[in-house]
Amino acid sequence: MQLSDSNSMKAMDDEQASAIGDNATKGISAAAKKLRMLKSLRCTDKHEKAARRAGARVVAGVDEVGRGALFGPVVAAAVVLPENIRRLAAKGLKDSKQLEQADRERLAEEVYAVALAVSVAEVDAATIDAVNIYQASRQAMLRAVLELKHEATLVRPDHLLIDAMQLDIECAQTKLFYGDALSLSIAAASVVAKVHRDRRMRELDAEYPQYGLASHKGYGTPQHLAALREHGPCALHRRSFAPVANWNNVSLDEEALDALAEIAEED
Q1: Which domains, from first to last, does the chain contain?
Q2: Residue 17 — very low, low, confident or very high, per pLDDT cuts 50/70/90?
Q3: Rounded Cα–Cα distance for residues 121 and 188 (Å)
Q4: For residue 223, what are the CA distances in angstroms to 45, 198, 208, 211, 226?
Q5: What percent of the chain has pLDDT over 90?
Q6: What pLDDT, in 10s, does the model give residues 51-81?
Q7: Above 50 in pLDDT, residue 14?
Q8: What is the pLDDT confidence band of residue 178, given thresholds at 50, 70 and 90?
Q9: Whole-Å CA distances, 172 to 61, 156, 161, 231
Q10: Cα–Cα separations (whole angstroms), residue 248 to 22, 237, 245
Q11: Exposure of 64 by Cβ count < 10 A (0-12 exposed, 13-18 middle, 19+ buried)?
């Protein structure tokens, strides 16, 4: 079991999203370095094989998306892939942040076609505000794991590969920083969660057309911030996040806006 006492690097991204201010310039630099580093990593089944050598029979990859958004739920997915996943690797499966929308949707279909079990879970904005985004993300991940099914039968993994977190569940876990760029199972979960959340944002765009959700998916783009200033937040905005809490007095400089845009690109 690979564990760490430090908070995940993604938690730092959430802090940037909810408290843009003096550290905006640092956020830009860190995000740019992170994206360059991610592109240098190789997504393989190395960690899946290691878990099986240690005795695991059912290995699940777990990831979440939407932590840095100002609107809507955080979404997590859990995916159990077969042992032979060369097909997915050959088709270009990797971290969803490095894929175009069409490729993500194509790969999500591939994942559903070959996976032994897939589950998606959401935690809404009200819960995010109540418990904080880090804990809400953990809740979504745990729910996704507990709801894994093959057809109508629940599937209980005996080893979890998780992107930068540890869950409160009696199960062997490997916590991998940048796991969605290193593990094919985590990458599969990342793609499934991202496609699910993006589709959800397009659906909600029809209910809340004033915010432009279909284009920015709830992240803090200049378009979204301008809409907040004009219309104010709705029930699905995360009111604990600074740009939403201060919606009637949002005045971010160019560097801070760029930092929010970087968060959207890497979430």
Answers
A1: 41-201 (3.30.420.10)
A2: very low
A3: 15
A4: 40, 17, 14, 8, 5
A5: 72
A6: 999 999 999 999 999 999 999 999 999 999 9
A7: no
A8: very high
A9: 12, 12, 9, 47
A10: 20, 14, 8
A11: buried
Give which of 232, 209, 228 is closest to 219, Cα–Cα: 228
Q: Rounded distance, CA 204 to CA 44, Å? A: 35
| pLDDT range class, residue 31, cuts 50, 70, 90 | low
The two tokens of residue 159 are: 């080893």
In this prediction the pTM is 0.83
Label residues 113-147 b or e (16+ Cβ within 10 Å = b).
eebbbbbbbbbbbebbbeebbbebbbbbbbbbbee
What is the sign of the dihedral through the CA atoms of 11, 17, 19 and 20? positive
Q: Which residues does residue 174 pair with via DSSP β-bridges, in sequence order?
A: 2, 161
Query: Residues 63, 180: contact at Cβ < 8 Å?
Result: yes
The DSSP call for residue 116 is S
pLDDT, position 33? 75
Written as six digits, the tokens of 22 are 């003096």
